[in-house]
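[Q] Does anyone have a clean structure-token version of this?
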Amino acid sequence: MIEFKNLTFKYRAADENALDHISLSLKQGQWTSVIGHNGSGKSTLVKILMGVLTSYEGEIVVGGETLTEENLLSLRKNFAIVFQNPDNQFVGSTVEDDVAFGLENNGVEREEMVERVEAALDTVNMLDFRTHEPSRLSGGQKQRVAIAGALVMNPDVLILDEATSMLDPKGKREVLESLKRIHGMKETTIIYITHDLAEIDISDYAVVMKDGQVISQGDVEDIYKDIDALESSRLVLPFTMAMSKALSDGSYMSYDELVARL
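[A] Here you go.
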């Protein structure tokens, strides 16, 4: 679905590259989590993909087509992004008005708009809140509305850039459960940007970044097994992983295996 080929980028005021010869392939329909500490380059990768940053070296291929200034807008129509602060994305006075905003801009007929808004809100379990003001919702509810606003556009690629970083544990669970439901229902390609190792276990594939480079990638279980690489990336180990390391030779144990060991 998406290929990054030898991608390199440096901010004007920086001495080092923010991205340093990144090569990466993301499969269609796959949930890929990109994880790294602040400054690792994961958000820069997304900004380049979305066309926010353009002065890069290398190549990006989307659906077999090389991304250029000429085709950027047409290819971006297949992408939707959700940021870490949903309040920055709200424009409607009610939940349903906000979710419908993108459809209104595209001139979608009202009957179709109503159906698509209801379907998107139902997918994230927010249909009962359709007439509520977004500002009065909890953090997790706001983020689910933001996700509905992205889903209603029927994107091929859904990008979430630190979408749970401002939420409490309950809000994080709500958002992750909604995303898991979406991924099970649709063939949407999900790119999930995070610094929290505990959030990647439901993804299909994981990419670990450090100082603008990919230092590890593969199935989540394989990523979890390389605890030394994760610690060298300055990532905080989840409790079960830290306990696994303390109790064994450093190999990864699942939650059930850890309970049995204890």
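[Q] Thanks! Anything notable?
[A] The chain has one domain: 2-78+155-261.
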